[in-house]
Each structure stands twice: as structure tokens, then as C-alpha cells.
Amino acid sequence: MLRLVLGGLLLPLRPLLIVAPTERAAWIAAGLAPVAVVIAATAPGAWIAAPLLGGALLLLMAADALMIGRLESWELQTAEDIEVGQPSQLAFTARFTGRQPSRAEAALACDPRLAAEGRTSFVLAPDPHGASWRGETTLTPERRGTAMIERAWIRWTGPLGLGGRQVDYALDRPVRIWPDLSPVRSPDLQTFLRNAQLGLINRRIRGEGTQFEALSEYEPGMDRRRIDWKASARHTKLFARENESERNNQIVFAFDCGQAMCEPVDGLPRIDRAVSAALTCAYVALKGGDKVALFGFARRPQLMTPFIADARAFHRLQSAAAGLDYEPVEPNFTLALATLTARLQRRSLVVVFSDFTDPTAAELMVESLGRLVNKHLVLFVTMTDSEVEDLIAAPPGDIATLARAVTAESLAQQRKLVLQRLRQRGIDVLEAPWASIGPRLIDRYLAIRASEAIG
User: Fold this and answer.
1) Residues 337 and 421 occupy one common structural domain
2) What angle do CA 300, 306, 308 make, to 5 degrees?
3) What is the pTM of this model?
4) Which of the chain's termini has less CB crowding within 10 Å, N or C?
5) What distance, in Å, lies between the first and last C-alpha atoms of the chain?
6) What confidence tens digit (pLDDT) does each residue in 181-219 have?
7) Which of 170, 118, 174, 172 is nearest to 146 (CA)?
């Protein structure tokens, strides 16, 4: 009996068993072909030797396949939920009855999200402490979504290595691929949250911010700018104002899911890098007492989550981010940001993740963000193009390399002009490599929050 294990669930399967030649048998058959030609050329009367040799090879292959035992059970173990860009182990365990094979192999047909070209194969090795054969491989998903493990094969060969048996059966088992939350689980971030003023306990922070909290008697060493002169005149002694850091801010992370954000950067689409950085910053914001929502758009708005105010509901943001689709189209910034503005009832910090290829394509983006900044605080986040930077930094060894460097430099200058136009419209711009975009975004959020510029 064959079995599939997914997330601890054991399922019986009905395989289709066939006898198959091995690679060694194919090479032997290829070597016998010239021999048959020589026999036919030198001794035409002995032509019967060629089919006899072929028949003998077929008999050896069949006998080799019959000498090995049958497959008793097979277990495929993989996680039901994995994160994009993070490796996940997949293990096969096979048990054979009777004579053990000389070699065993396994292969999977799956969604290209899980493996390159939608296929992965590996060799099974005998377990030195048992009668089973085991093989492992690592799956590293490249995109979010629900990927299917569609079909599985296992082949084991006889002692001669000429023939073997092969099992082929359909699985159609889903594997859910979620956004990468490894930065949220990192020890550095958890230590920061424990030690920072935004710590895990939601408490009032006096002495900072602009929201009035209480009056206290002035003591030497206090900042003189905190003295409340009207209250001091009424009480004939000096009193100082104690302010509370502003909380309950609204933070919206808006994702451009269009063509430019679907392009890969170091193996993963830009949108997945952006989602990971945004969720990390959202976790910090929730711990600090702010509200967080997600907004996704391409040709039209994809989703708009309600504002989440409790860190215990962070999984709702993760589930919503997993639903952001990849669309190879130009985004409609005018419709998307107009829709977002209509849904926001108070001043908020809107963090827009996007990218562009040239100033012409960015024209509508700049105009739409310029209208959004009239009512809200806008932070534009983009990732530097490492490929363009490498072309610029490449030594000019030949004319072709020099031409590519000049073109890349022109693109970089055009990019700087667009970012400068955004800054001139009052939009804060954050540009950094993808590896540091998460920490840089958290630092920028904390700086904006401390300046009391959101509310």
C-alpha cells in the first residue's frame, strides 16, 4: 500500500505499476545497434542474430525487474503551509518486501512555485538502521499562493541494473505558500520590542509627544519649555506639562501589484520582498498601539482590510497579504489612490510600495501621490535595482560593457529625477536594497511616529 503524509495526515493511494528499462539498458541497446549493422553488412544470412540479441536484452530486463521485491508502502512528508523564499524539507520513505533493490529513485511533478520547471527528483538511500529507503529534498517556493503537488513517481531497479519497476500515481495535494515572516520571528526584532519604549506592555509614555496628560510641579533639571505659565500664575508656583506619546495612529500599507513589482530581485518578486518588510513594520506598529491596514491594487483595487489594532490579530494581516495577486499589467494609480482616499476617514500614514521603469510611466504615479499627500502623510518605498548598479560598477573592459554602463547610468539618473519630484511634493521617500528595506522602514516609521506628524 502507498501512503501520503501531508501535515500529519495519512492517506492511502492506488498506484499504477509498470516495468521500465533503466539508463544502463538503454546504453546497452545503443551499443548493440552498430553490432547488428556490422552483422547485416558482413553476413546477411546471419541477420537473425540482431533480433535475438534484442530479445535477449528484453528478457534480461524483464527477469531483472521480476527478481526484485514489490513496493510495500511509501510515505511523502511535507508541510501544508510554508513561506515564500524559505526552504522547506520534503522527505520520502519507501519500504520494499522481498529482495531489496539496487537503486531507488523518486520524482515529483508540482507547481512551478515549489520547484524550477515544476519538477524535482532525487535518489533514495537505504536506512542503515531499518528496512526502509529514504530521500530528502528542499523546496524553496518563489511565489505566494496555493501550489499543487500533482503527481509522484518512484522507480526501483534490480541487481543487474537493466530493468526496474515504476509506480506512477496522481496526488493533487495543495501546499499553501504564505508571506515570509522570518524577520518578525528574528531574535533581534523580539529583543528590540522588549527593550524599546514601545515594549510588549501597552502603557502610557509620559514626557514625550504632544498630547497633554497632566500637570506636575516643576523641579530643577526639567526642560523650561514645558512650563505652563498660565497654570503657574494661578497657583503662584511653577507647574510643568506632562505630555503623552500619541497612539492609535492609522497606518496603511499600500502595495502596487503591477508589472514592475512582479519582476524578481535576487530570486523573489519585488512584491514579496515588500510584503515581508511591510508585515515586519506592521508587527512593530501593532505592538506600539497603532492601527494597521493593508491595501493592494493593480489595474483595479484588489483588497482593503479593516484596521487591525491588536497584535493578537496579526494573522489576519498575514492571510490578507497572502491574497495579493501578481498581475503583469500597468497599475492604475489614479483609481487605486482615489479609492483609498475615499475609505480613509482620518489622517493616516500611507506607506506605498511601488517601482517604475521610466519617468513617463511614473507620471500618473507622481500626480496621484501628489493628491494623496494633501490629506495624508505619504511614505514612498522602493527597492534599488541591484542589476543596474552592477552594470554601472562593471569595469569598462570592452565597448559593449561600456555601452551597458552608460545606459544603466542614464536609467539611474532618470530614477533619481522621479524620486526628487516626489520629495518636492512633500512625499517622504525611502530607497534601499531589499535586504535592508525592512529595518530601514521600521526606523523611518519610528521617526515619523516620534515627530507626532501622523495625527
Assistant:
1) yes
2) 135
3) 0.75
4) N
5) 64
6) 888 888 878 777 776 654 444 444 444 444 555 677 777
7) 174
Note whether 134 and 238 are same-domain residues: no
Residue showing cell 541494473: 161
State the residue range of the domain holding 346.
182-187+247-450
Claim to verify: residue 150 and residue 58 sit in the same structural domain = yes
State how far the Cα of 316 lies from the Cα of 283, in Å rounded to an integer: 12
Closest Cα to residue 320, out of 253, 248, 249? 253
pLDDT tens for 317-374 read: 999 999 898 998 899 999 999 999 999 988 999 999 999 877 777 888 999 999 999 8
Helix (H, G, I), strand (E, B) or coil at 122: strand
**Helices and strands (DSSP H and E) totals, the chain:** 13, 21
Task: Say if residues 121 and 178 touch (Cβ distance below 8 Å).
Answer: no
* Same domain (yes/no): 152, 282: no
What percentage of the chain's residues is helix, strand, coil (to nearest 5)? Answer: 40, 35, 30
Provide the sign of the torsion angle of the four alpha carbons 342, 347, 348, 349, taken in this order.
positive
pLDDT band at 314 (very low <50, low <70, confident <90, very high): very high
- 299 contact partners, CB below 8 Å, separation of at least 6: 258, 327, 329, 330, 331, 332
Give me the number of domains the chain comprises: 3
C-alpha grid cell, residue 263: 519582476
How far apart are the C-alpha atoms of 3 and 9, rounded to whole Å? 10
Residue 444 lies in a domain: yes
List b or e across 398-410, with b for residues whose CB sees 16 or more CB atoms inside 10 angstroms. eeeeeebbeebee
pLDDT category of residue 274 using cuts at 50, 70 and 90: very high
